[in-house]
């Protein structure tokens, strides 16, 4: 008995050409595979946990922003003050600089020794000890708590005080210079809530689904290869290419759906997303955000699929994928089209032509990645 010939790449093993045996139109097998993949997510505890965490972050975004911002910027909160001892040469100017910082209260001491004693006895939270050097410069020694959460808080406030002190000293010494220095720009008092929400929280919620999409693709394909189920496709009415594309459709398609849900929860929680002068402009901004997420998910999922086929071992593929994605996003952060910056500009509502051009470039990159994954699948031997 002669062996059954293998189907050509892209053709089905049963000889059908996109039609059911009864002659009716045949459902796209990629849609069927994608639905199967999405239905199987309920058994993936890690992915379900990641989705629940994202849901929690989006649903309680306002509370999280208040808490997290207060950690690194105590001036944004209420009822917290860093008591600071100030002593040494030119201590009056340094005390004035401390007074310019929100949630920071300065106390003038007679000498650096008494200020250091007050800090050691925990009567103050920090101490700033200034000394004038023979070169007519000021050196400031900062005493802060060691090894606890308060250290970060106090250091952040002390840094702001030192910047104010430096600005004041530059202004005082300008008259003694032979040439006039450039004027310093005015101090900008931006809202820490605004910056944290749109530069940290929104990109985090948008790109977490992207990482999940790639991980889901790697896990799904390596599991299929490990069980040998992909080899059965040679006698099934579906090609390996359609199977992989269906998995990519499920992974990359889920990411913008998640992102849209998170953006909706943010808006419901009072965080404006892509605010603009008209509803149409807002819709364009939101659509661009979702297109950005879909493009990034396509790149990451296609990369994961190629890695799974080249390195079918699940642990090795996940390790290479994780390192590769970190490197990819690290390189993107150094490029003019950093996805996080593009997302922040779209979310704030300050997108310009260059921003939309960057979105278009990322969409083109996503399509190219999917095409590349298709080539890898067609050239891969599943025997």
TrEMBL record:
Q: Which GO molecular function annotations are given, in alphabetical order?
A: ABC-type transporter activity
Q: Which GO terms describe its cellular component?
A: membrane
State the source organism's domain of life.
Archaea
- Matching InterPro entries, A to Z? ABC2_TM
Q: Which residue ranges are recorded for the region named Disordered?
A: 1-29
- Topology of the protein relative to the lipid bilayer: Multi-pass membrane protein
Compositional bias of kind Basic and acidic residues = 14-29
* A Pfam family recorded for this sequence: ABC2_membrane_3
> Where would you find the membrane-spanning parts of this chain?
46-72, 193-213, 288-309, 316-334, 354-377
Q: Which UniProt keywords apply?
A: Membrane, Transmembrane, Transmembrane helix
The protein's location, in the record's own words, is:
Membrane
Principal location: membrane
Positions of the ABC-2 type transporter transmembrane domain: 53-330
Protein name listed in UniProt: ABC transporter permease
């Amino acid at each position: 008995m002669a062996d059954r010939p293998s189907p050509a790449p892209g053709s089905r093993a049963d000889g059908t050409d996109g039609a059911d045996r009864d002659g009716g139109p045949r459902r796209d097998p990629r849609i069927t595979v994608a639905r199967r993949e999405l239905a199987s997510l309920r058994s993936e505890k890690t992915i379900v946990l990641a989705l629940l965490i994202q849901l929690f972050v989006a649903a309680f975004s306002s509370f999280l922003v208040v808490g997290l911002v207060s950690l690194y910027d105590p001036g944004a909160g209420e009822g917290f003050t860093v008591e600071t001892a100030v002593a040494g040469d030119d201590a009056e100017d340094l005390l004035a600089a401390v007074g310019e910082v929100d949630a920071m209260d300065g106390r003038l001491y007679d000498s650096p020794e008494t200020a250091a004693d007050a800090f050691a006895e925990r009567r103050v939270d920090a101490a700033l000890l200034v000394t004038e050097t023979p070169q007519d410069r000021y050196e400031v020694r900062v005493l802060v708590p060691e090894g606890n959460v308060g250290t970060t808080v106090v250091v952040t406030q002390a840094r702001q005080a030192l910047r104010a002190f430096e600005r004041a000293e530059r202004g005082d010494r300008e008259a003694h210079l032979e040439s006039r220095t450039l004027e310093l720009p005015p101090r900008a008092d931006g809202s820490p809530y605004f910056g944290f929400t749109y530069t940290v929280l929104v990109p985090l919620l948008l790109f977490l689904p992207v990482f999940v999409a790639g991980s889901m693709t790697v896990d799904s394909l390596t599991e299929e290869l490990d069980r040998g189920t992909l080899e059965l496709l040679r006698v099934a009415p579906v090609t390996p290419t359609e199977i992989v594309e269906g998995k990519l459709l499920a992974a990359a398609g889920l990411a913008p759906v998640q992102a849209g849900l998170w953006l909706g929860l943010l808006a419901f929680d009072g965080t404006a997303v892509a605010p603009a002068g008209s509803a149409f402009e807002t819709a364009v901004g939101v659509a661009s955000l979702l297109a950005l997420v879909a493009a990034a998910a396509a790149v990451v999922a296609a990369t994961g699929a190629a890695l799974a086929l080249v390195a079918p071992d699940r642990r090795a593929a996940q390790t290479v994928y994780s390192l590769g994605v970190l490197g990819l996003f690290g390189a993107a952060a150094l490029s003019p089209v950093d996805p996080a910056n593009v997302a922040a500009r779209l979310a704030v509502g300050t997108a310009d032509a260059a921003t939309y051009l960057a979105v278009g470039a990322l969409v083109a990159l996503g399509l190219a990645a999917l095409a590349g994954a298709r080539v890898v699948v067609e050239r891969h031997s599943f025997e």
